[in-house]
Amino acid sequence: MSRRARLGVLGIAGVVAAAAIAVWAALAAGPSTSGAKAVNPFAGVNFISACRFSHEATDDPIVYPGQPGKSHDHTFVGNTSTDANSTLDSLRAAGTTCQRPADKAGYWMPTLIVDGQAVMPAGATIYYRRNTLARVHAFPAGFKMIAGDSKATTPQDRRITFWNCGVESGMPPSDTPPACPDGRGEGLRLHVNFPSCWDGRSTDSADHKSHVAYPTAGVCPADHPVAVPVITLIYRYPVSGDHEFALSSGGVYSAHADFFNAWNQGRLTQLVNFCLNGLRHCARF
Of 39, 71, 73, 108, which has the most beta carbons under 10 Å away? Predict the structure, then answer.
């Protein structure tokens, strides 16, 4: 295909995407008398970072910086050096288990306990998606946030966290770990979705949550006006069947996750603009 033809195709795709966004925005703005449902035009707009398990430790550089051993046990993927003393500089100087070399961010969740024994994830799939009408901005360097509630004793909103056995199993999302069928899919999975609206000022906050918020119908709240990617962190565990499950933070309802941005900033910005603002699904590399 010639360059002119490629540009023509991209131009048509842009017009179609713009029209879809306009329809979604109109439907999301209020009730429809036609009975039409708002179809999210950003479904499938993402880029993926696939990361192997790195290490476990009773450290949390966001909640307990400089206090090794103070936290409940965490399971880390991505940056290979994440510990209680991690800084942006130390993370950027270290290695990564992610297939994208530019992704040196730290990601962690509470450790899964199965029948009284700690189980490490087989790996993690990390989606960076767009779910806002406004253009998305890359997280600033050193940005930190937490999603989910480590003290929850009842089911959390499934828009934030849930368990399942993967799409291949045909089993729906669940508030508790399901008994995953052996040999189907990739075993048990824990999903955590992060907020995607930012106050535009703070790279962290006292509770590590107040500087971010979740959008409503693709629109960020006025006090958090800057759209950022929605990160979906999915841990995959080599576990099937029925067991006694817990998390190191408490019961199975206490799922939560942490993100510490140490990406190569230029590469992150490039991916956000090309994939998310360009309304594209990008491969893992």
Answer: 108
Q: Which two tokens stand for residue 164?
A: 């399942």
Which residues contact residue 199 at a Cβ distance below 8 angstroms, ignoring those fewer than 6 apart?
A: 211, 212, 223, 224, 225, 226
SS3 69: coil
> Distance between CA atoms of 33 and 97, rounded to whole angstroms?
50
- What do you get for the CA distance between the two ends of the chain, in Å? 23
Name which of 21, 28, 27 is nearest 45 in CA terms: 21
What CA–CA distance (Å, rounded) separates 37 from 179? 34
Across 157-174, b (16+ Cβ under 10 Å) vs e yields: eeebbbbbbbeebebeee
Q: What is the DSSP letter of 154?
A: S
| Rounded Cα–Cα distance for residues 240 and 114 (Å) | 11
Write down the H helix ranges in the chain. 3-29, 88-93, 265-271
Helix (H) or strand (E) holding 78: strand 74-78
- Give the pLDDT mean for 42-62: 95
Give start and end residues of each alpha helix (H) in 86-160. 88-93
pLDDT value of position 184:
54
Per-residue pLDDT, 6: 41
**In 10 A of CB 154, how many CB atoms?**
8
Cβ proximity of 60 and 70 under 8 Å: yes
Nearest to 28, CA basis, from 217, 177, 193: 217
Query: Which tens digits make up the pLDDT trace of 74-126?
Result: 999 999 999 999 999 999 999 999 999 999 999 999 999 999 999 999 999 99
| CA torsion through residues 113, 171, 125, 231, sign | negative
Q: Which of 263, 270, 282 is nearest to 96 (CA)?
A: 263
